[in-house]
Design goal:
The chain is α/β, with parallel strands linked by helices and 285 residues long. It folds into two domains: 4-185, 3-Layer(aba) Sandwich (Rossmann fold), CATH 3.40.50.720; 191-276, N-(1-d-carboxylethyl)-l-norvaline Dehydrogenase, domain 2. The protein has helices at 17-28, 40-57, 67-71, 97-110, 126-130, 164-176, 192-208, 214-225, 231-238, 240-254, 262-270; strands at 9-13, 32-36, 74-77, 88-91, 116-119, 139-144, 153-158, 180-185. The protein has an eight-stranded mixed β-sheet with strand order 3-2-1-4-5-6-7-8, sandwiched between helices. α1 (17-28) packs across α2 and α7 (192-208) crosses α10. It starts with 8 loop residues before the first strand and ends in a 15-residue tail after the last helix. It binds 1,4-dihydronicotinamide adenine dinucleotide. The site of 1,4-dihydronicotinamide adenine dinucleotide has 24 residues, from α1 and α4. Residues 189-284 form the 3-hydroxyacyl-CoA dehydrogenase C-terminal domain. Keywords: NAD, Oxidoreductase. One of its GO terms (biological process) is fatty acid metabolic process.
């Protein structure tokens, strides 16, 4: 396995919200980054987002260098084979087990032996993803939080076969990006989403059942439990479709206590997905 000191090039698969955030954080920490998406338009959008994040970070203690110098370390591509020289790969594509398994099988054939393949999955099994490769011991979860350049926490997920040196590398890599880590066994939702998703769904149900106004549900949880966002605003921030999808995965694995709230499904069906569509539980400009 490649040691942290041997990692120069980080491959990122998926240039969406999380992929471009991971690319930004890795480049800011001095790594060369190759970011891959399936269409040039998505690659371009990802690179533009990297540039925006770097401009926002400029002058803060999170970015020691000039943004342009950091930006030059990030290269975009539509070819997975351009990740052949990567020393570590982090996958951040759609949350779909079959698609992730396909990409991991392809990556396994492309990158050198000893290169660790990490997934940023929020809820899917690292063990099942790893089983699509011939290097299951080199597959680990490195679960960044959104927005990546700002959020300090990273969850390291240990699959059934993940080698302990690979787990240690994942912690060390995240720490090198200025993050703080914790570890979770490969169980549905890991630590964060296993606990967060029922909390959000209970907030949605409380609103739907008329316990309080949505503003008072969010105020109550913020003032009463000292969290920065209440369940309804946080759902809008994450995206209601993402919350519903994660809730459905947990429901399938863990049973009825994870049933998604009915109003969550109704809003997703209506296309009100939260901040990204301008309307979720609240309205946005
Ligand atoms: P997104 O929808 O913003 O981006 C996904 C990107 O992957 C899209 O640009 C899509 O074109 C691309 N893609 C799809 N198939 C691909 C393939 N075969 N090769 C390369 N690119 C491909 O999704 P987002 O939100 O960035 O999520 C990515 C992963 O991160 C998911 O597994 C999600 O569960 C996880 N995650 C998301 C968080 C969030 O708050 N959005 C937080 C933590 C984890």
């Amino acid at each position: 396995m490649r040691e942290l000191s041997e990692i120069d090039v980080v491959g990122v698969v998926g240039a969406g919200t999380m992929g471009n955030g991971i690319a930004t954080a890795a480049a800011a920490a001095g790594y060369e980054v190759v970011i891959r998406d399936i269409e040039q338009a998505y690659v371009d959008r990802g690179l533009a987002a990297v540039e925006d994040s770097l401009d926002r970070l400029a002058g803060s203690d999170r970015l020691a260098e000039d943004p342009e110098t950091v930006r030059e370390r990030v290269r975009g591509t539509t070819e997975l084979s351009d990740l052949a020289d990567a020393d570590l790969v982090i996958e951040a594509i759609v949350e779909d087990l079959d698609v992730k398994r396909e990409v991991f099988a392809e990556l396994d054939a492309i990158v050198a032996d000893g290169v660790v393949l990490a997934s940023n999955t929020s809820t899917l099994s690292i063990t099942t993803i790893a089983a699509a490769t011939d290097r299951a011991s080199d597959v680990v979860g490195i679960h960044f939080m959104n927005p990546v350049p700002v959020m300090k926490g990273v969850e390291i997920v240990v699959g059934e076969r993940t080698h302990e040196a690979v787990v240690a590398l994942a912690h060390a890599f995240a720490a090198d990006l200025g993050k703080e880590t914790w570890e979770s066994d490969d169980k549905p939702g890991f630590v964060t989403n296993r606990i967060l998703m029922p909390w959000i769904n209970e907030g949605v149900r409380a609103y739907d059942e008329g316990v309080a106004t949505k503003a008072d549900i969010d105020r109550g949880m913020k003032l009463g439990t000292n969290v920065p966002m209440g369940p309804l605003e946080l759902a809008d921030h994450i995206g209601l479709d993402v919350v519903l999808h994660a809730s459905e995965t947990l429901h399938a694995e863990l049973g009825d206590r994870y049933t998604p709230a009915y109003l969550l499904k109704r809003k997703v069906e209506a296309g009100d997905l939260g901040k990204k569509t301008g309307r979720g539980f609240y309205e946005y400009d």
